[in-house]
Amino acid sequence: MEEKVLSGSISKEAQAAMIRKERTANNAWHKFCRNKSAVVGLVIVCLMILMGVLAPLLSPYDPNQINVLETYLPPFTGSHLLGTDDLGRDLLSRLLYGAQMSIVVAIGATVLGGVIGILLGLISGYAGGVVDAVIMRIMDGMFAFPFILLSILLVTILGSGVFNVILAIGIGNVPRFARVVRSKVIVTKNEEFCNAERILGASPLRIMFSHILPNTVSEVVVYATLNIGSAIISEASLSFLGLGILIPTPSWGNILRGGRGCLTTAPHIAAFSGLLIFVAVIGFNLVGDGIRDVMDPKMKK
Amino acid sequence: MANQEILLQIKDLSKSFKVGSRKLGVPAQQLHALSHVDLEVYRGETLGIIGESGCGKSTLGRCIVGLHTPTSGELMFEGSPLSFSGPQGKGLRRKIQMIFQDPYSSLDPRKTCGKIVEEPMVIHKTVEDRAQREERVRELMGVVGLDAQHVHRFPHEFSGGQRQRINIARALSLSPDLLVCDEPVSALDVSIQAQVLNLFGKLQKEFGLTYVFISHDLSVIRHISDRIAIMYLGQVVELCGAEGIYDSPLHPYTQALLSAIPPASPFEKKKAIELSGDIPSPIGDQVGCPLASRCPHCTDRCRRECPQLTEQTDGHQVACFLYDKERAR
Amino acid sequence: MDELILEVNNLKTYFFLASGVAKAVDGVSFQLHKGETLGVVGESGSGKSVMSKCVIRLLEKVGRIVEGEIKFDGQDVLSFSEKELMAYRGQDVSMIFQDPMTSLDPVFRIGDQMMENLRIHRGLEKAEAKKVAIEALRSVGIPNPEARFEAYPFELSGGMCQRVIIAMALCCNARVVVADEPTTALDVTVQAQVLRLLKKLQKETGMALMLITHNLGVVWDMCDRVMVMYAGKIVETAAVKDLYANPLHPYTWGLLDSMPSLSSQRKTALKTIAGTPPDLRLTGTCCNFYNRCPYARPICTEQVPELVELEPGHLVACHRQCKSETLKRGEDGGNG
Fold first, then answer.
1. CB contact residues (below 8 A), chain B span 188-247, against chain A
2. Position C329 in a domain
3. C299-313 pLDDT, tens per residue?
4. Where are the domains of chain B?
5. Would A3 be classed as within a structural domain?
6. Is C243 exposed, middle or buried (0-12, 13-18, 19+ CB in 10 A)?
């Protein structure tokens, strides 16, 4: 059953070129690239990750090397490019290592919160009824609790440390993921193709994991990318309060905290760490928006 | 007809839905989607079901395939009660399949065409070997007129008619006996609709399929069916052979439905039999004939009692007091 | 009867997509006279809806009218300012959409929506507008219009909503009504009611009706003239009875044959048009129908057929239907 394609005087090559062009135009990556702000975001995100990964190579100094003779050096002077902090540690090195910490915590927390949230949302949305009511009321309860208080509580119980911070922020993210996934699951499970699966004899588990879950991927990816940005802020807030990453391990949050005491005398410490947090969050949000535009063509324009 | 084997028997089937009230303290009302439907489907035939929106024809289809559980009444398949639970139920599943109206939402957008057609065989483990399964997928795609090279395409890369073909291939992969088709061509363009209708005809001949064909388009129904059931407000009001419905419609509703169909040529002028008003709401209990409020022949008795399907001539049944032999006596 | 109201000349509307230019409407010309009903038939993607949206100047951003003119009463519609367009859309030309439920704003009462229309377009006072609106509702056969005036769209059935929309079109005294699949979303019995209503109102007001549909039965019932569109072009246009009795274009034949009719033999295979409509980005260099046409000749792949008048009022665009050559319906394809 080969269909004749309408070509007329158009040559085969021209037609093939058009089909190629269409493939390209519909290709997710090319769609993403047409969105300039998303590309800017992606560049920022890549730079941030590179900073973290290459921190050991890029850092001119050991981030924890104390030099009491060179405290509060201003930036762009002498051997320390971005100056030094209250203990004479090189700020650039600390920020690079801080990127490592912040991004690990943010991604870790998002993955943790995502996995638990997706599972809960999937069960809640698919089962409905009492199960849904119980799960969602618990989520509502967690929502109602201010996020910072929740994290403080968790960190107080669990103690500080990288893993515990990830756990605290991750658990704080669960209800949001659960909600996003649940609403999409409810829409999807009522679509005709899920009825078709039921008629074909597919088990509920198969419908949930093989059909509904893949259809929530776009929502989850978009939400997770946006969430990384807010997780960076969460980590910074916790560290700023002294509950997150413990000194002397650098993270953007506790560098910012260190700069708080000397805002008037050495503003560059707070300024650079704050700026990095700001840029990183913007970067992840731009990428998230870009992915959403690609995934959901209806949202465009 | 009578000597044919009954494949599916629908006995006194009713289905009602609870309609929740938003106001506190007001009890939920019942929406009667189907009330006391009795139908028989013979092996190898096509039973057409026609009616306007809200008449319960889709609910009937969904009860047959087990998407809805009937409120009361019974479904018998090949002489034994139809139930999809338990190990026997899984076997029955394979015998009754459905084609949906919307070719766009009835295919999982994230699976390729090949995976969609293959999946039923994986679920039921009918074909264990992967290479054999792929072979069967190609074969099925050929049967429904799809290019076997397109196995790796996603549903959105197909047109509406082609998607409906994928739907059909998926249902066929289990070699069913009964295919419930819920408005399978109403979302398609005329020229594509004809292609799909021809495919249905061809498959019936080839595989001896039995169809329950639900549609609102009388010309489509008449073209494909052997017998036609006309539904109105959850009840079957007339049941007859496909020719009879056009030549000698008995029920006032059928007559009105026929007269409302646009003419087949600009030279034809139709006599308009108009039913006044809209279809009444199926919510709450009703007394009497469902058509009573709109029927030009309505009598007191129609408002009090509900007429039953009674046989008039061979195989032609109607539920209307106009044809009640007792009254005529 | 013969007064010309709407004239469209060589209208071309293209959609500029990332993957190419889709020629949704590719050189369409027609005229609409007072009191006339013009049917536009075609499958989805034939450009009939886009064309109707051009006529009322409601086109999405990606689509652009690249060529041609639309004249209403001798005025150039395409050069209208935003303000002139407001008046044009409400007063001169009205549109009835396919889905009655979504073309009314769900959060306002239907009475308020009608009155707003009347106050903008006819400058009526509130009390007067209400009177006119209720009168219009009564004339479209809505029972108890005073009560329905206060209803929200979701409280009405599909047929009732479509009547309300027709009433809105009416009470602005529109001279041209463009109806895009007005009955497709409705049941047959309701469709019959709505069509009868449109006919009756047309007789009373003398409005011109452009009826876009894919249902040929509706065309037979309602229209005086009919235009068959395929892939953005008109392939045939004729008076309804001529088109039925003597269709000329192979696509029209296919369209007529593929409808299962109530009088044809049951259970026989329907004649179909093989294949699917072309990609609109590839059209325009040859006959758009040639890949599905059993009568195609080499010339069909080389030249775009012109729309020629073979009989008075009967125009067709086919290389094999011209003054020097005629093709008979059902004739052997001749190319295997």
1. none
2. no
3. 888 888 888 888 888
4. 6-260+282-328
5. no
6. buried
Task: Say if C283 is an interface residue toward chain A (CB within 8 Å).
Answer: yes
- Coil/strand/helix, residue B269: coil
A6 is a domain residue: no
Determine, for residues B100 and A195 on separate chains, whether the beta-carbon distance falls below 8 Å: yes
Helix ranges restricted to H, chain A: 12-26, 28-34, 36-53, 55-58, 91-127, 129-144, 147-158, 162-189, 192-200, 204-206, 213-240, 252-260, 267-295
Residue with tokens 């006529």: C55
CA distances from B108 to A204, B112, B122, B156, C205 (A): 15, 8, 16, 10, 50
Nearest CA in chain C to B256: C189
Q: How far is A1 from chain C (nearest CA, A)?
A: 10
Q: What's the CATH number where A248 sits?
A: 1.10.3720.10
Residue contact A6–C288, C-beta within 8 A? yes
Residue C105 sits at the chain A interface (C-beta within 8 Å): no
Q: How far apart are CA B14 and CA B60, in angstroms?
A: 9
Task: Report the distance separating Cα C27 and Cα C13, nearest Å.
Answer: 8
C214, C240, C276 ranked by CB distance to B266: nearest? C240
Same domain, C257 and C201: no
CATH code of the domain in which C145 resides = 3.40.50.300
What is the domain range of residue C103? 4-229
Asked, for residue C327, whether it belongs to a domain, the answer is: no
DSSP B65: H
Does any domain span residue C330?
A: no
Is C326 an 8 Å CB contact of chain A? no
Tell the CATH topology of B6-260+282-328: Rossmann fold (3.40.50)
Q: Are residues C206 and C77 in the same domain?
A: yes
* Chain C interface test: which of B53, B147, B189 (most C C-beta within 10 Å): B189
Domain check: are C178 and C193 in the same one? yes
Query: CB of C298 within 8 Å of any CB in chain A?
Result: no
Query: Given pLDDT bands bounded at 50, 70 and 90, which one contains residue C60?
Result: confident
In a domain, A182, yes or no: yes
Across the interface, whether the CB atoms of B94 and A201 are under 8 A apart is answered yes
The predicted-structure confidence for C256-274, as pLDDT tens digits, reads as follows: 888 887 777 777 788 888 8
Residue A49 maps to a domain:
no
Query: Per-residue pLDDT tens for C4-20?
Result: 899 999 999 998 877 77
pLDDT, greater one: A248 or C32: C32
What are B292-296's contacts with CB under 8 Å, separation 24+?
B295/B252, B295/B253, B296/B252
Last residue of a domain, one of C172, C198, C229: C229
Please state the length of chain B.
329
* Local structure of residue B106 (DSSP, 8 states): S
- Chain C neighbours, 3+ Cβ pairs < 8 A: A, B
A→C contacts (Cβ < 8 Å), by residue, are 3-10, 15, 18, 21-22, 24-26, 34, 301
> Looking at residue A259, what is its pLDDT?
85
Pairing of strands C176-180, C208-213: parallel
Q: In this model, does residue C334 exceed pLDDT 60?
A: no
Number of structural domains chain A divides into: 1
Domain boundary among C229, C250, C284: C229
User: What is the average pLDDT value for chain C, to the nearest integer?
Assistant: 85
Structural domains of chain C, count: 2
Of the two residues C335 and A117, the one the predictor is more confident about is A117
B-chain residues within 8 Å CB-CB of A192?
A: 100-102, 105-106
Instruction: Report the pLDDT value the prediction gives residue B236, as an integer from 0 to 100.
Output: 92
Q: Which ipTM score applies to this complex?
A: 0.84
pTM of the model: 0.84
Contact A6 C283 (CB under 8 A): yes
C118 and C143 share one domain: yes
Question: C324 lies in a domain?
Answer: no
Comparing CA positions, the residue from B109, B110, B184 lying closest to residue B144 is B184
Structural domain boundaries, residue A137? 108-301
B105: which chain A residues are within 8 Å (Cβ-Cβ)? 191-193
* Among candidates B67, B102, B124 on the partner chain, residue whose Cβ is nearest the Cβ of A201: B124
- C302 inside 8 A of chain A by CB: yes
> Chain C 238-277, CB below 8 Å of chain A: which residues?
275-276
Q: Does B82 touch chain A (CB under 8 A)?
A: no
Please tell me the predicted confidence (pLDDT) of residue C104: 85
Same domain, yes or no, for C225 and C237? no
